[in-house]
Amino acid sequence: MNPRLDAIRQRAREAGADAVVILHPPHLRWAVGFTGSNGALFVTADAAHFVTDGRYDTQARAEVEGAEVHVPGYALFEHVVEHRLVGEAQRLALDADRTPIGTFERLKALFPAVEVVPVAALLDQQTGAKTEEEIERLRAAQALTAAVFNDLLPLLQPGVREQDVAAEIVYQHLRKGAERMSFEPIVASGPRGALPHAHPSSRTFRPGELVVLDFGGVLDGYAADLTRTVAIGEPGEEARRVYEAVRTAQAAGKAAIAPGVSGRDVDTAARAVLEGAGLGSYFGHGLGHGIGLETHEWPRLSQRADDLLPLGAAVTVEPGAYLSERFGVRIEDVVVVREAGCETLTPLPTDLIVL
């Protein structure tokens, strides 16, 4: 028995369909455990069929739970048609947000007797509410990334290049057992810290500057995401004031999190602190995003997010203030929505570290 297949069937019924095709690799992993890059899962009311190519024959048979495995080569959809694996289904739902238009048109052509129905946010609610097992995997990933951050601190000295620190971040993650990075590390010093997604450069750290460090590793399929802003020596009164405002904003955002609260309201709680400190115009992105088998997933915390947070959702809380050509501050933790509020999975304090 695989209860996630039952959840997919229920989602199909809600969408008015009697079959579902899952193509997005993270959703395939969530649904049946497959970790490869090419596969398709067809779920009907009474069956589930997983098709992949010959590269994944042994792997799929070892990993896939609850679905019959087929390895027809690269003609995956054609195999499903030839062997009538969707049975008597009349409406086939697919993920409207993650299916290329070419794939959609191909499915329509191959299944002329079946109505192919694009469904927005097909599995967002299902994958967004994490199980306790998933939460523990996120906790372990976040702990690994936090350990890298602590080991990194002695390297953060005047004269060190951003690129050298970024290389060390990647090396330390792989050395400690991460599968890969969640995303390219951000190392942004001084005025480059005002660029929220700055790429590491050849710029060297200088005394009195703030450095924004944003990185995470993937462990057992689940992504970590951590941001800390540190000072290379005493940063000055204004930088400390901005840092404390961002820190207070993050605390306010966390305090607003609870089941049934909208992402917009959580964002507003944090944003109000920065606006009260005269920094509202320097916070130009949303407060956070869901995290799990993908680094960025549903639900979001932003002014455009009206969805309500479900129990068990894992999200980042990452307010920032970016003073153009001067410096930037961002603090980010991963938290889980609990009955009584939120639990922080990041095992690090948020106090300013002055090196």
Task: Explain this structure.
By secondary structure, the chain is an alpha+beta fold. It folds into 2 domains: 125 residues, Creatine Amidinohydrolase, Chain A, domain 1 (3-Layer(aba) Sandwich), CATH 3.40.350.10; 226 residues, Creatine Amidinohydrolase. It contains 10 helices and 20 strands. It has a 6-stranded mixed β-sheet with strand order 4-3-2-1-5-6, with helices on both faces. A 4-stranded mixed β-sheet has the order 8-9-12-20, covered by helices on one side. Strands 7-10-11 form a 3-stranded antiparallel β-sheet. Helix 7 packs across helix 8 and helix 9 packs antiparallel against helix 10. The longest helix has 21 residues. The chain is elongated, with a radius of gyration of 23 Å. The N and C termini lie far apart (53 Å). The relative contact order is 0.11. The mean pLDDT is 98.
Describe, in short, the structure shown.
The chain has 355 residues and is α+β, with helices and mostly antiparallel strands. Helices cover 33% and strands 24% of the residues. Strands 4-3-2-1-5-6 form a six-stranded mixed sheet, with helices on both faces. Strands 8-9-12-20 form a four-stranded mixed sheet, with helices on one face. Strands 7-10-11 form a three-stranded antiparallel sheet.
